[in-house]
Design a protein that fits this description.
Layout lengths: L15 H34 L3 E7 L1 E23 L5 E6 L6 E2 L4 E5 L2 H65 L4 H61 L2 E3 L4 E3 L9 E2 L8 E16 L3 H8 L5 E5 L8 E13 L4 E8 L11 E18 L4 E3 L2 E7 L5 E5 L1 E6 L2 E6 L6 E5 L10 E4 L1 H4 L1
Parallel strand pairs: 1-20
Antiparallel strand pairs: 1-19, 2-9, 2-13, 3-5, 3-8, 4-7, 5-6, 7-9, 9-12, 10-11, 10-13, 11-12, 13-18, 14-15, 15-16, 17-18
Helix pairs in contact: 2-3
Keywords: Coiled coil, Transport
Family: Belongs to the membrane fusion protein (MFP) (TC 8.A.1) family.
Subcellular location: Cell membrane
């Protein structure tokens, strides 16, 4: 039996033309494969780019925006008076209830007046006595003046008599020399003249003594008048001390806790006092702002009084309106803030001293401002921007210059026009050129 072997023929030899055709065929196959892969990837990218991202948008609009500075404040009494007794004594009466609103001049306390009334009566008696002494001293002065007048009158009369006596003495001396009269007669007239001259000298001495008495009487009058003034001062002091036994409210306000009950002894100027009155109509609210905001504050203060709203936390009541009335002259170095105070009428008594409130300082109104919801703002390496929805429903990253933020809205100073739509929710999945599907805010939540 003959076995047959398979005969394997060698491949035929290719001509140069056949070799070239085969190379082109291989190159074509490779290119087709590459084109197929690239086309599939390109199709996938286009498909991904056309998959719209759901977003929530809002429209940039014009609005009048209030420029405000929020803060937290503390209510302070407009004035606080600690009522103290100015005299020692027993507290006889209390004429108000603790926490009561009192009016200026209203009776609050009465201290036992009996000891002070006795002091006043004694001082008045001493004053009456001093007045009598003044009157007596004035009468003595008048008498001394009269004595001076009398002494001068007597001197005038005696001086006239002395002159006449001297003339007679001289005449009789001449007659004696002529032998018309005796020496005894002449000597008699000379003696009378000398006696008259001595009387005149005595009158001069009496005048000097009377004038000295007038000086002493004047001193007595002055002394008596000084005593009278002291007595009058004592009466005024005693009357004042008596008046201090009745204590009235010096201001309108609300009383605090009573420190001393009726019947107890009180001491003058006791540190604890009797009661404290806080004036709360009007009242202050004290708050602070950062020092960086002071220049802007001063700018708007120059245009007029600034309003301040106070809101009581956890209260549905409307804001209470007041006026900025005080700006401190020193910064707090520890906090970098400056203290301000606003005055509120507080006619309804909504604000109480020590209460914490939310404060809004109103600087001005910014008209026709372009605003967008604050959540539309994004921050990148080059600053803040927003995603703007373009007519073809793709988004563009638009850099913006922002202004003040009021509530949930931010002022856009540059970069947007009214009516443009900005993305407020869904920005995380966005990039420039990505298509978006606008959703309602309810669907996005």
């Amino acid at each position: 039996m003959i076995s047959k072997k398979a005969i394997i023929k060698p491949p035929p030899k290719l001509t140069p033309l056949q070799k070239g055709s085969l190379g082109l065929l291989v190159l074509g196959i490779v290119c087709f494969s590459s084109w197929a892969v690239w086309g599939k990837k390109t199709t996938q990218v286009k498909t991904d780019n056309h998959k719209a991202v759901p977003v929530v948008v809002a429209q940039a609009s014009r609005a009048t925006i209030p420029l405000e500075i929020p803060s937290t404040g503390t209510v302070e009494a407009y004035s606080t008076v600690s009522i103290k007794s100015l005299v020692d004594g027993q507290l006889m009466g209390v004429y108000f209830q603790q926490g009561q609103q009192v009016k200026k001049g209203q009776l609050l306390f009465k201290i036992d007046p009996a000891p002070f009334q006795a002091d006043l009566d004694r001082a008045i008696a001493q004053q009456v006595q001093a007045q009598a002494q003044v009157q007596q001293a004035i009468a003595n002065l008048q008498q001394a003046n009269d004595q001076v007048t009398q002494a001068k009158s007597t001197q005038v009369k005696d001086a006239a008599q002395a002159r006449n006596a001297d003339i007679e003495a001289k005449r009789y001396t001449h007659l004696f020399q002529q032998g018309a009269v005796t020496q005894e007669q002449a000597q008699q007239y000379r003696t009378s003249a000398d006696a008259a001259e001595a009387t005149v000298a005595a009158d001069r001495s009496a005048i000097r003594e009377a004038i000295a008495s007038v000086g002493s009487a004047k001193a007595n009058v002055q002394n008596a008048q000084a005593n009278l003034k002291a007595a009058e001062a004592a009466v005024a002091s005693a009357r004042t001390q008596l008046a201090y036994t009745t204590i009235y409210a010096p201001i309108d306000g609300q009383t605090g806790s009573l420190q001393v009950n009726q019947g107890n002894l009180v001491k003058a100027n006791d540190t604890s006092g009797l009661v404290v009155i806080n004036q709360i109509h009007p009242t202050y609210i004290s708050f602070s702002i950062p020092q960086q905001q002071l220049p802007e504050l001063k700018k708007y203060m120059a245009q007029g009084k600034l309003e301040v709203d106070a809101l009581i936390p956890n209260s549905s009541a409307p804001p209470i309106r007041g006026k900025l009335t005080f700006v401190d002259n020193t910064f707090d170095a520890t906090t970098g803030t400056i203290q301000l105070k606003a005055t509120f009428n507080n006619t309804q008594g909504q604000l109480s001293p020590g209460e914490f409130v939310d404060v809004v300082l109103k600087l001005a109104q910014l008209p026709n401002a372009i605003v967008v919801p604050s959540q539309a703002l994004q921050t990148g390496q080059n600053g803040q921007y927003v995603y703007v929805v373009q007519p073809d429903r793709t988004v563009a990253a638009r850099p913006v210059q922002v202004g003040d933020t009021v509530g949930n809205e931010t002022v856009i100073n540059r970069g947007l026009q009214p009516g443009e739509q900005v993305v407020t929710d869904g920005q995380f999945n966005l990039a420039p050129g990505v298509s978006v599907a606008i959703q309602s805010s309810n669907k996005s939540q």
